[in-house]
């Protein structure tokens, strides 16, 4: 199997008005394995402000087996329409360093449905796209392979 992503980073912002327990459970449900058993760190950062506090949950998947398991689960959860939209928007979602950005709508994922969004109320997933040679065209081709509509579901 060709390695299409080198790493995956996921994060979510939990605001004071959010149900923190539900958001954390939904965040952990993104991963197809128990983080603790797999020795994957769940970073939790709290920011205090005069108006509100925000908790940021972050997970970095660096091992190929973790990345591949996550990608399989992520694609399985996405609809064919969302994968097609991701491919259609690949140019704008890929930065110059090879980081590819996808956001899942927070309220939809809390209900168990993966839906791609551009909203800030979301679960952020960043994929470091593998490419050799490391150029934009190869990265874009790998994004297409990664989210190909006919290979999942």
Q: What are the key terms here?
A:
single chain; 153 residues
SSE blueprint:
Blueprint: E1 5-15, H1 20-28, E2 42-48, E3 53-61, H2 64-77, H3 80-88, H4 90-93, E4 99-105, H5 106-110, E5 122-129, H6 136-146
Antiparallel strand pairs: 1-3, 1-5, 2-3, 4-5
Provide a concise account of the structure shown:
The chain is of the alpha+beta class.
Could you characterize the architecture of this molecule?
With 153 residues, this protein is α+β, with helices and mostly antiparallel strands. It is 34% helix and 27% strand. It contains 6 helices and 5 strands, in the order βαββαααβαβα. It has helices spanning 20-28, 64-77, 80-88, 90-93, 106-110, 136-146; strands spanning 5-15, 42-48, 53-61, 99-105, 122-129. It has a 5-stranded antiparallel beta sheet with strand order 2-3-1-5-4. A hairpin with a 4-residue loop joins strand 2 and strand 3. It is globular and about 45 Å long. It starts with a strand and ends in a 7-residue tail after the last helix.
Which blocks of ≥5 consecutive residues have pLDDT under 50?
Answer: none
Q: What is the CA-CA span between the terminal residues?
A: 18 Å
- Overall geometric form: globular
Name the average pLDDT. Answer: 93
- Using only C-alpha atoms, the radius of gyration works out to 16 Å
What's the main sheet like?
A: 5 strands, antiparallel
Q: Specify the oligomeric state.
A: single chain
Number of helices: 6
The portion of residues assigned to helices is 25-40%
The strand order across the widest sheet is 2-3-1-5-4
Sheet/helix structural class: alpha+beta
How are helices and strands ordered from N to C? Answer: EHEEHHHEHEH
Give the total of beta strands: 5
Approximate strand percentage: 25-35%
């Amino acid at each position: 199997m060709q390695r299409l992503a080198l790493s995956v980073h996921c994060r979510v912002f939990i605001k004071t008005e959010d149900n923190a327990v539900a958001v954390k459970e939904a965040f952990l449900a993104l991963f197809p394995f128990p983080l603790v058993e797999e020795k994957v760190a769940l970073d939790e950062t709290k920011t205090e402000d005069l108006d509100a506090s925000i908790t940021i949950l972050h997970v970095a998947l660096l091992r190929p087996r973790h990345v591949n398991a996550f990608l399989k689960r992520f694609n399985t959860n996405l609809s064919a329409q969302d994968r097609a939209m991701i491919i259609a928007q690949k140019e704008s979602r890929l930065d110059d360093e090879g980081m590819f950005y996808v956001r899942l709508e927070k309220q939809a994922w809390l209900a168990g449905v993966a839906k791609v969004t551009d909203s800030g109320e979301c679960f952020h997933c960043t994929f470091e796209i593998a490419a050799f040679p490391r150029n934009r065209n190869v990265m874009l081709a790998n994004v297409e392979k990664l989210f190909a509509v006919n290979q999942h579901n």
